[in-house]
């Protein structure tokens, strides 16, 4: 199959198409960079607080859940290489515009809560290691988001190249953690007994321990989100039907392996209560590692890592707006492209303003858990959609995942999204408010479209 066999999306009349600037290697780095970042650098300690020293287990389980759902995304993006992602798959599978809009809004909201968590992480302990906190953390977080919005407006090529640089930096930071762990093992330092130390938040056993592990996995899953964002770059990727399977599977496998190893090193060297109390848990690992590595330099690396997470999430949310506008799920104005830079200008401005608002609604843990909860709900729908759309044949070759994987993906996503995961009520409240906002926007959009005599696309 040649590149010309790959379907493309026609942009709105009079609007330029998005620039296909992303090749196979760049996409692999993009996926890795999208997954790595805030989750592992900032929430590792909170995960430890839910499960104890056996910190590696939630990340191992999260890796399996991510692979199951990634397989469904790979099949679907190969069949429909367009920018709307989960919203497109939901509409094609179920043809219920209301459900499509809610799924799309949940994906967008998850990206923005993730970017807000990254902004909060940026203004936390890692920055405190470098500065005297001259500005309020909330103001720092807001300025941080606005700066990334400006970079996104500059162009996809600049944004993706910046992503590559930041990805290499954050990989370097995690390599430093792994090197510290290897040195500790060879030197006989650390406490291997912590690796099998399971602790529930209330000190109980049995059911409490199970819900603690599920809660830790659900929060730790925040570290794996990102691969689903990459499908929204389908219209800016060269030959997406061929490129995406390898990129997504390699990206999830590399990050999953790194996460489990980093979790092992963290528990080996630092007591889980110390990790829990820090918003910069990997800095605690560096301090306890027995290697004279500059603490300020590692803090700077961590800041680059959380910057990368926010950059990618704002970029993906804006592309989702663009895709939904082309599908008539959102008004056409949301698909407006800046002619000179060929970037979705209205989408970038819209999602950046929403991210600024979210910054003030919670801390890193709550915003991260909200991100994971919203996406777990979406992942359940996408896995079911992959099964439903098996009956829809397309005229080009594409990856097809074994049937058992979407089935297991839907089941595991629903379990982690359920109350069994022992997440705080504030997460459900925040997610509920976001969904309610989505319902309100859906109603307004329907009224506007009806007044204009427009109909949303059903396929």
TrEMBL record:
<protein>
    <submittedName>
        <fullName>APC family permease</fullName>
    </submittedName>
</protein>
<feature type="transmembrane region" description="Helical">
    <location>
        <begin position="427"/>
        <end position="444"/>
    </location>
</feature>
<keyword id="KW-1133">Transmembrane helix</keyword>
<feature type="transmembrane region" description="Helical">
    <location>
        <begin position="55"/>
        <end position="77"/>
    </location>
</feature>
<feature type="transmembrane region" description="Helical">
    <location>
        <begin position="98"/>
        <end position="122"/>
    </location>
</feature>
<dbReference type="InterPro" id="IPR050367">
    <property type="entry name" value="APC_superfamily"/>
</dbReference>
<feature type="transmembrane region" description="Helical">
    <location>
        <begin position="297"/>
        <end position="322"/>
    </location>
</feature>
<feature type="transmembrane region" description="Helical">
    <location>
        <begin position="401"/>
        <end position="421"/>
    </location>
</feature>
<feature type="transmembrane region" description="Helical">
    <location>
        <begin position="165"/>
        <end position="186"/>
    </location>
</feature>
<feature type="transmembrane region" description="Helical">
    <location>
        <begin position="206"/>
        <end position="227"/>
    </location>
</feature>
<feature type="transmembrane region" description="Helical">
    <location>
        <begin position="372"/>
        <end position="389"/>
    </location>
</feature>
<feature type="transmembrane region" description="Helical">
    <location>
        <begin position="343"/>
        <end position="360"/>
    </location>
</feature>
<keyword id="KW-0812">Transmembrane</keyword>
<dbReference type="InterPro" id="IPR002293">
    <property type="entry name" value="AA/rel_permease1"/>
</dbReference>
<keyword id="KW-0472">Membrane</keyword>
<keyword id="KW-1003">Cell membrane</keyword>
<feature type="transmembrane region" description="Helical">
    <location>
        <begin position="26"/>
        <end position="43"/>
    </location>
</feature>
<feature type="transmembrane region" description="Helical">
    <location>
        <begin position="248"/>
        <end position="270"/>
    </location>
</feature>
<feature type="transmembrane region" description="Helical">
    <location>
        <begin position="134"/>
        <end position="153"/>
    </location>
</feature>
<dbReference type="Pfam" id="PF13520">
    <property type="entry name" value="AA_permease_2"/>
</dbReference>
């Amino acid at each position: 199959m040649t590149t010309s066999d790959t379907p493309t999306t026609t942009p709105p009349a009079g609007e330029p198409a998005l620039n296909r600037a992303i090749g196979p290697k760049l996409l692999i780095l993009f996926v890795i960079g999208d997954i790595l970042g805030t989750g592992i650098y900032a929430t590792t300690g909170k995960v430890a607080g839910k499960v104890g020293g056996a910190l590696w287990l939630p990340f191992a389980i999260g890796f399996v859940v991510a692979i199951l759902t990634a397989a469904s995304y790979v099949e679907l993006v190969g069949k429909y290489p367009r920018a709307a992602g989960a919203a497109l798959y939901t509409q094609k599978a179920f043809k219920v515009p209301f459900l499509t809009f809610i799924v799309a809004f949940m994906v967008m909201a998850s990206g923005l809560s993730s970017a807000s968590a990254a902004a909060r992480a940026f203004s936390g302990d890692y920055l405190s290691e470098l500065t005297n906190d001259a500005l309020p953390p909330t103001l720092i977080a807001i300025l941080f988001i606005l700066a990334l919005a400006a970079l996104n407006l500059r162009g996809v090529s600049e944004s993706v190249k910046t992503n590559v640089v930041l990805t290499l930096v954050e990989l370097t930071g995690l390599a430093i953690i792994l090197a510290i762990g290897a040195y500790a093992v060879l030197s006989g330092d650390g406490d291997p007994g912590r690796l099998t130390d399971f602790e529930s938040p209330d000190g109980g056993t049995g059911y409490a321990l199970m819900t603690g592990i599920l809660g830790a996995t659900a929060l730790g899953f925040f570290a794996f989100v990102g691969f689903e964002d990459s499908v929204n770059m389908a219209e800016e990727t060269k030959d997406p039907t061929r490129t995406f399977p390898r990129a997504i599977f390699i990206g999830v496998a590399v990050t999953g392996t790194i996460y489990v190893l980093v979790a092992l090193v963290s528990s080996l060297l630092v007591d889980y209560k110390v990790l829990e109390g820090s918003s910069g848990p990997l800095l605690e690992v560096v301090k306890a590692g027995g290697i004279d590595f500059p603490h300020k330099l590692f803090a700077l690396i961590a800041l680059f890592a959380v910057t990368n997470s926010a950059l990618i999430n704002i970029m993906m949310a804006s592309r989702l707006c663009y895709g939904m506008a082309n599908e008539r799920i959102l008004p056409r104005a949301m698909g407006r492209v800046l002619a000179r830079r060929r970037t979705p200008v209205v989408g970038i401005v819209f999602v950046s303003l929403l991210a600024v608002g979210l910054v003030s609604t919670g801390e890193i843990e709550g915003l991260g858990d909200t991100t994971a909860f919203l996406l777990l709900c979406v992942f359940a729908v996408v896995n079911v959609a992959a099964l439903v759309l098996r009956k829809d044949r397309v005229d080009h070759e594409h990856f097809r995942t074994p049937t058992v994987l979407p089935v297991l993906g839907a089941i595991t996503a629903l379990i982690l999204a359920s109350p069994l995961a022992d997440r705080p009520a504030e997460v459900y409240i925040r997610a509920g408010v976001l969904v309610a906002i989505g319902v309100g926007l859906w109603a307004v959009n329907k009224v506007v479209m009806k007044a204009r005599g427009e109909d949303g696309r059903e396929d």
